[in-house]
Amino acid sequence: MGLKVLHISKYYYPFSGGTEQIARDVVLALKEVPGCEQLIFAFDHGTPKESKDSRDSVDGVDVIRCRCFAKISSQSISATYGRRLKEAVDEFKPDVVILHYPNPFGTHHLLKILKKHPEIKLVTYWHLDIVKQKFLKMFFNGQNANLIKRSAKIIATSPNYVKGSPWLSSASGKCVVVPNCIDENRLVIDDEVRKKAQELKEKYEGKTVCLGVGRHVEYKGFKHLIEASKLLGDDYAVGITGKGPLTDELKALAAGDSKFEFLGLVSDVELRARLMTCDIFCFPSVTKNEAFGLALAEGMYFGHPAVTFTIEGSGVNYVSINGVTGIECPNGDSKAYAEAIKTLAEDDGLRARYGEAARARVIENFTFEMFKKNIIDLVAGL
Description:
The chain is α/β, with parallel strands linked by helices. The chain has two domains: about 5-180 and about 365-380, 3-Layer(aba) Sandwich (Rossmann fold); about 185-365, Rossmann fold (3-Layer(aba) Sandwich), CATH 3.40.50.2000. It has 16 helices and 16 strands. The strands form three sheets. Strands 3-4-2-1-7-8-9-10 form an eight-stranded mixed sheet, with helices on both faces. A six-stranded parallel sheet has the order 13-12-11-14-15-16, sandwiched between helices. Strand 14 (about 280-285), helix 12 and strand 15 form a beta-alpha-beta unit. Helix 1 (about 20-30) crosses helix 16, helix 2 packs across helix 3 (about 105-115) and helix 8 packs across helix 11. The model has no long low-confidence stretch (mean pLDDT about 95).
């Protein structure tokens, strides 16, 4: 009889999110294990008005989705979740449960159900600590302690996060580091990308091009990139993709700086072209809400040095290594950030050396093939 694995994720594809993509990567990795059966359990990602209980299939694996009738502090609440999860465990009879954390509501029901199933091995995929919601963080301290105690293994995305998390550092013996992976198929350079890249080269000829990628939210630190841009000369072009709740505020901050460009939500073709043609990849995140930095790894994959901030307990400074793949600046120091950009711009040899090392680091550590090996080895060793 083969291995049975139940995956519990907050949401699942086609919902687009970092945790959800990693959950799907885990499923795809285990699909290559002969005889491995899988089932996915998640909330329906529709609005409370549209949400419903359902069952469908993604990548040939069944997905059970539970209706969400409300959301509190980004946590979905479902009246059917506990019953349907118990039914899934009783009927599927998993050998292993992989829980993607944080998901306090799902964790509450899972721990309750697992009390009657000591034979099931629990793997907790610890994506990040709850740091923003201070009340919830305190409320779920007991739950976290029980979750760690029940877990056979805990997956962390970097050794930095293990050391910086009060929860993971206290259970380091159970922790296994599995770095996130880029999707190389999404980053392929084809003729359409090359054509767009040539247009961009002509547009920015004679300028050092700096690119940032991400949602416009506080922890992404784009305000520091804007402040740094104002300290650069007119021979630079600085742009950020995306949008978010801080877009208008960021635009107001950038007013008067003609070198700074808001690119908006770009197509995959344009993103690849911009990643291909920029000179320096700017990743100014400032808090450990940025647990790893997948966009950072994508920028490095294209052979560009990175400029980052020091973030205690975050994987950002594990993805890009100071003095090897880029330059790391004191957290929130916009002036130092500008100086780092200037250093790279004015030294072609240094920029090329860091860029080559950046690409090599991603290929050696953060590809799907390496991720797949890590996941398969972990499950096989339970």
